[in-house]
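Review form for a predicted model. The reviewer records the input and the model, then writes brief findings.
Reviewer: anonymous (R2)
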Amino acid sequence: METLVVVDDDPIFCGLLKTVLEFEDYHVIVEPNPDIVLSKVREVNPVLLLMDVHSEKGDTLDVLRELRADESLPGLRVVMTSGMDRSAECQQAGADAFLLKPFRPDELVGLIADLVAKSQDDRVVHINRMR
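Model under review:
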């Protein structure tokens, strides 16, 4: 079972995402505080992070940049979400994908399945290079 981390300060939205993704056999960890995302990702080693661009604490693009600068996270896939189209900014900061809210659950599930498959391939390559 693959682990996903959801970073969003909306508890209702997080509950919905958790239900949908657990139904698809993912282990979902919800983290409302973007300030501790880097330590949480290092702790649980998720295959994918789904993070809202906006939080009560401000913009999360700096968090995304920190994640991308961390060489110990080569296979981590990051999907950014927002109610405003910030896709270009997210892509420049290192996001693998951007979803404009509101989005359909099947759209999210399909995107995650594709990115998880790519992440698994990257992790194998990274491990083989380390040998």
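Findings: Strands lie at 3-7, 27-30, 48-52, 54-55, 58-59, 77-82, 97-100.
Further findings: The CA atoms of residues 34 and 63 lie 7 Å apart.
Recommendation: see findings above.
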